[in-house]
Amino acid sequence: MEANGTVTRVSRIPLCDIDSSHGDAYADASIPTMRGTWGYVCRPCFDANGCTLGEGRGQELRLPEPEPVRVISMGPTVGDMLEGKIATRPDRRISTMCSGGQEAHEEHMRLNGECPWEH
Q1: Cβ atoms < 10 Å from Cβ of 60
Q2: CA 97/CA 94 separation, integer angstroms
Q3: Taking CA atoms, which of 27, 36, 67, 88 is between 20 and 30 Å from 95?
Q4: pLDDT tens-digit profile of 55-64?
């Protein structure tokens, strides 16, 4: 959980302003040893210069949270159909995906009176 005013989301993490050889910055912070000048600082420079997080002091830099991945349950395969696990009619299209309430489920119910998935 993020404390109020301690984190900011950025599109990219910049290099440390004090020593770019240290790599990525940890925070955008006021640097007390530099008369409160603000800069991007890596974790070692953040600690060595007495920086702190909070409103008016500094914010940890983080990339945006990735979008959640939606997992869609895959229905029966062509192999299931060939093994006779699914009743099909040659004059009807075959759907390989089913999730309760979706078109494929309704098609199975209409054609067979039951759905091959237990849901």
Answers
A1: 17
A2: 9
A3: 67
A4: 999 999 999 9
Q: List the 7-9 sheet strands across, edge first.
A: 7-9, 58-62, 27-31, 37-41
pLDDT, one tens digit per residue, over 55-102 is 999 999 999 988 877 766 566 666 666 666 655 555 444 444 454 455
CA dist list (Å): 44 to 32, 36, 71, 77: 14, 17, 40, 54
CA separation for the pair 22, 15 (Å, rounded): 8
User: CB of 79 within 8 A of CB of 101?
Assistant: no
Q: Take residue 91 and report the two structure tokens written for it.
A: 């004059």
Read off φ and ψ for residue 60, nearest 5 degrees: -70, 140
How many CB atoms are located within 10 Å of the residue 92 CB?
11
The vertex-74 CA angle with 93 and 115, nearest 5°, equals 60
